[in-house]
Amino acid sequence: MISTFLKFKQYVATVIIVGSLGSCSSDDYNDTLNPGLDPGSRWITVAGARMGENPGDGNGGTLIYSVTKEQAKDPSVSIAPFDNGFIVPSNRTARLQSSEDGNTIFNISYAGDTGGNYTKYTVNGGQGFMSTGSEISIAPYVGTAPRWIKLFDGDQTGAAVYVSTENEFDANGDYVRTDATIGVVTLDLQNSIINSFEEHSVALTAQEEAAGYYISRIDMPVLNAAGDKLYIGARLSKVNPATAEGDSDYPILGSKTIVLDYPSLLNPTVISSTIGHGNTNGYRSINAFLYNGSVYQANQSDPEGSHILKIDANNEYDSTYDFNLDEALGVNDAYILAWRPAGNGKAVIAYRHAGSVEGAAGAQGFFAIADLNTRTAQKIDAIPYHPDFYLFQYQGFVVDGTDIYVTQAPVGQNGNIYIIDTETGNVTKGAELINVEGSHFIGTF
Q1: Domain boundaries along the sequence of the chain
Q2: Backbone phi, then psi, for 72, in 5-degree steps?
Q3: What is the pTM for the complete model shown?
Q4: If DSSP codes are grouped into helix, strand and coil, which group holds residue 34?
Q5: Architecture of the domain spanning 43-444
Q6: Entry's PROSITE patterns (predicted)?
């Protein structure tokens, strides 16, 4: 077996220093280790989340390692980021983004002393990630554990968000509503400067608020096709109006999204779906994508199983677009953990469902291929599944033409990269992924 690490073995001594410093300089980097990319190739960066205290928690930090797409497709290549990878600055699992061509990795540290620090790295292959540009902290705007995403505007802008809540009472001490104040900051990724920051109190309908509903979490901003509106996914929670205590058993409302003018980040409104119910904030992976002039958005915790919802150019949910994953896959309680479409409208979805086995870190995950146009989906059987195949923290998919690259490895066990040709449905088994005890892979970038 050809080990990618062996190709870089002369660099091992430097790797230890690189990991501790958080970057490698051009002086440290040996050009013989980076032969450059052939025309038509690109870097594929594999990310792994190391165990903290419990298997699969990902709290021990994030490591990344890059190979060419030809190496990623080669099952004789072995990739061992937990042993040889670059340590991404982050107290817990890093929230990574990559440039469209794979040549740059963007990171905002999550929690800890460096929480909220933005850095970017040029990808040089293997453990070679060279810090480039200046760093900036967005912590003063959105805290040290920001939820952020790279907008699809040619790698120009990142957007980070937060929400804080406070119960409001009248003069008699009776509950009135829960105020949800959102903060949104946009960041120039190329020049490391803040573009805009705005805060807003975002209200639901008077009837919904009187019943105790409020926006409790927001995430996953995405631009509309016109580039003049920013959509932000939302999770709703509820209190009992009689006691102002948290309520856990209540009707799930239609899925909601906050809409802001862009780039001003002004004039917040809330739109609601009549098709899907549940949350639209996702978790750690991008949850909404622009395709064919509309935004397609996954929802979670839907009583009827996750849907992919459609927001049209009029900035309203399409009440005729009904794509229910339960119906498409023939399962119950489908839950979209992460997903990514290619430019042809075919998407790869990471999901769990009521039949998932409870593994070492949580419910077993699966991959499916879906078609946004025909609203159909099919489980990808060519990828092996294991009770410990955990995808709840999955973050990254590389889209290269009609190919989508994913990682497959149970918690603490070896696995492989798999390449799904979304046009034909063919699946190629690629490079081997070397794991360590309790850790797991969180995707490709």
Answers
A1: 43-444
A2: -60, -30
A3: 0.91
A4: coil
A5: 7 Propeller (2.130)
A6: PROKAR_LIPOPROTEIN (PS51257)
